[in-house]
Amino acid sequence: MNSPIVCSRITGTGSYxxxxxxxxxxxVARGIDTSxxxxxxxxxxxxxxxxxxxxxxxxxxxxxxxxxxxxAGRVPADxxxxxxxxxxxxxxxxxxxxxxxxxxxxxNGAAAFDVQAVCSGFVYGLTIADKFIRxxxxxxxxxxxxxxxxxILDWNDRGTCVLFGDGAGAVVLEASSDPGILATAVxxxxxxxxxxxxxxxxxxxxxxxxxxxQMDGQAVFKFAVKxxxxxxxxxxxxxxxxxxxxxxxxxxxxxxRILQATAKKLxxxxxxxxxxxxxHGNTSAASIPLALDDAVRGGRxxxxxxxxxxxxxxxxxxxxxxLRF
Length: 325
Ligand code: ACO
Description:
Layout (H helix, E strand, L loop, with lengths): L6 E10 L4 E3 H6 L6 H8 L3 E3 L7 H15 L9 E5 L10 H8 L7 E5 L5 H15 L4 E9 L9 H4 L4 E11 L4 E8 L7 E2 L2 E4 L2 E4 L4 E2 L1 H22 L9 E4 L4 H11 L10 H4 L6 H11 L8 E8 L3 E8 L1
Parallel strand pairs: 4-5, 4-6, 13-14
Antiparallel strand pairs: 1-7, 2-3, 6-7, 8-15, 9-12, 10-11, 14-15
Helix pairs in contact: 3-4, 7-8
The structure holds acetyl coenzyme *A.
């Protein structure tokens, strides 16, 4: 008798945004040479959340994870794999995933590691967890995107500091006989590394290079729109589906104009795109699970819906996940 094919399925979502929303006008009041109209017109961003100095990525991850675990009807001890996607980890090491495991009180030896793929980190993490579960080695994964991007922003660079925020989103992904995740694709091209980077390192007790995010915004924009459409078609093709079968497009929340251009290039009506960037800015690896959780708790995404998640980040890295929720 053939053993049943093991698939992976999201059983719970959660998210967390620290503190009060900080408006564009709040940034102006803090002395940044910008305006609400410039930011809204170019990016669609109205608010972001900024973590306190004492709050780390694993703290944000903890709050989002507890909500996802509760939504899945699980307890932390059920988790046997923890993947945290972050570019702003608590420390050089140990990983934020290991710190999260401890904060969750998990004592069962669950595997825990971070994934560094910047804004595509959550899609990378989901892809890895799906493969672990399909292999049969693990059954109940916690996949988190958690960022304190405010730590790597140069508040004197108005071209970048207005774009980003802090937050976390999480999902519980479990072994299931029904899909679940239908197709995944992840890619990278390191020849674009200078377009979007934090080109610094800790060495000999000092930061060598720059500890701040730098970006060629227009180059990111062009590459993002092209590659997000391509990778969407790749996962649709892999699962024998077409674009009209997508109920919800949940892209990385970088910028409203990238979201609009990507939906248009793909032929997905904007009403089918989950857009939350207005309320939390670009939270890098956290943005996709934040948007997913918002849509689930808001009653838009329902069980059985077909979702296309897609992200692009520094590296460049990019990827997509097609799934039945
Ligand atoms: N407020 C007011 N004026 C500003 C600001 C600001 N915050 N930032 C830049 N400007 C000014 C510039 O100084 C410049 O002025 P000048 O014409 O007098 O020299 C003018 O606005 C235009 O600057 P550009 O950098 O050319 O602005 P652009 O139209 O390219 O918009 C933006 C910048 C919004 C970043 C755009 O390039 C973009 O949407 N890029 C996509 C990249 C993105 O969203 N990245 C997010 C991270 S990447 C990721 O998540 C994958």
